[in-house]
Write a structure and sequence with these properties.
Shape: globular
Distance between the termini: 48 Å
Radius of gyration: 16 Å
Helix content: 25-40%
Number of helices: 6
Structural class: alpha/beta
Number of strands: 10
Largest sheet: 10 strands, mixed
Order of helices and strands: EHEEHEHHEEHEHEEE
Strand order of the largest sheet: 1-8-2-3-7-4-6-5-9-10
Strand content: 15-25%
């Protein structure tokens, strides 16, 4: 069955369309959606079968996956991490929503399908209304993994119609939220209490440190 291509306005997402996507996520669907960086592939983090499907699409080992997820806001993040020190919280407050992935120590609420053998987790709050609203209406975070590999430069990665052509037989919905970017988020590891940039991406952390 082919995926549905749904056009959603990134500045003022139509609630009816958001609810339609959320309904698919609740039923274990896999979607492709815009972020403030590269288009993402995702599902509800609490649906193990959907998470496994995301891993298969990406060619990842489910036992060793390196999946991050999207939260709606900072208070939402606090549910899924053990603790946030004041300096970490202050930095996140300055930079989020934004093109950053923060690696933090995971709480027991993070499902094993996301972090099967790890005690850390990557969390994002992208500066894009569509994924944040999806998470808010779903009530759960959604997986975020880019639709391309970091070292692969491909034309389809930014154009929603080309994304749809490539993935229409693999996912349930492709959201057209306009052209995406071709640079990934900056990854910041905070598991040892200090900010360590492990991948330079779209976000520049220097002004905030």
């Amino acid at each position: 069955m082919k995926a549905e291509l749904i056009k959603i306005h990134p500045d003022n997402p139509e609630l009816r369309k958001i609810e339609k996507v959320v309904d698919v996520l609740r039923k274990g669907g896999v979607i492709i959606y815009p972020t403030d960086t590269i288009y993402g592939l995702g599902c509800d983090i609490f649906n193990p079968a959907a998470v496994e499907r995301v891993c298969r699409i990406k060619g990842m080992d489910c036992e060793k996956n390196n999946l991050s997820f999207i939260c709606h806001d900072l208070s939402h993040i606090s549910e899924y991490v053990k603790s946030l020190s004041t300096p970490v919280f202050k930095l996140m407050k300055k930079t989020l929503p934004g093109p950053y992935t923060y690696i933090l120590n995971a709480s027991s609420k993070v499902p094993k399908s996301i972090a099967p053998k790890r005690k850390t987790v990557g969390i994002r709050i992208p500066d894009n209304n569509i994924p944040r609203l999806l998470v808010e209406k779903l009530g759960n975070p959604i997986i975020t993994t880019s639709i391309r590999d970091d070292d692969e430069v491909v034309e389809y990665a930014t154009d929603p119609e080309l994304i749809y052509e490539k993935f229409q037989n693999m996912v349930d919905i492709v959201i057209d939220g306009g052209y995406g970017k071709n640079v990934a988020s900056t990854v910041v590891d905070f598991t040892n209490g200090e900010a360590e940039v492990v991948r330079e991406g779209l976000g520049d952390l220097e002004p905030f440190l």
